[in-house]
Amino acid sequence: MKVRPSALIWRQHENQTEVLLMRYCYGDQDVFALPGGNPERGEILPETIIREIREELGVSVDLGEMILAGEMLLSERNDDVLHVVFAARNLQGEPALNPDQTTALNLVWVLVSDLDKLNLYPNIGAKLQPWFNSATYLGYVGRIEQQYFS
């Protein structure tokens, strides 16, 4: 099983909370993901997230608590993946994609209320929305059901 740590980066904009997502296109489908990536050998998860955000977005953040962990069991398609999401605070700089470091097409700020309407990878939009009201650890969420992309 692979591990993919990611960061939940948010801001207040016009009295609404928005989350930073990276937009990809697989086949003819838009897919959105939290910034993050794959750990390098000897790297702990927070180090991975900080490095990936610096390389891919050119910004820095302070990582806080782990919000949730959940598994995607992908059967024969790919390796199973354990997704671990951390809260990221104190965004320093204006995020901009570095095309040498990512295949994402662009960055988008999405309203928290719209997270469950997007094709999000992993499919955790509905699980993240309540966190903004309680800011408590959601814990292990078990299996994450995901739509597959061609």
Structure explained in plain terms:
The protein has helices at residues 45-57, 125-128, 131-134, and strands at 2-13, 16-26, 29-33, 60-72, 81-92, 106-111, 120-121, 139-143. It is mostly beta strands and 150 residues long. Strands 1, 2, 3, 4, 5, 6, 7 and 8 form an eight-stranded mixed β-sheet that branches. The protein is globular. The two termini are 21 Å apart. The model has no long low-confidence stretch (mean pLDDT 89).
Short note summarizing the structure:
14% of the residues lie in helices and 44% in strands. The protein is mainly beta and 150 residues long.
Question: Which word captures the global form?
Answer: globular
Q: Outline the low-pLDDT stretches.
A: none
Q: How confident overall, as mean pLDDT?
A: 89
Radius of gyration: 14 Å
Report strand %.
35-45%
Please give the structural blueprint:
Blueprint: E1 2-13, E2 16-26, E3 29-33, H1 45-57, E4 60-72, E5 81-92, E6 106-111, E7 120-121, H2 125-128, H3 131-134, E8 139-143
Parallel strand pairs: 1-5, 3-7, 4-8
Antiparallel strand pairs: 1-2, 2-3, 2-6, 4-5
Which features characterize this protein?
mainly beta, eight-stranded mixed β-sheet, 3 helices
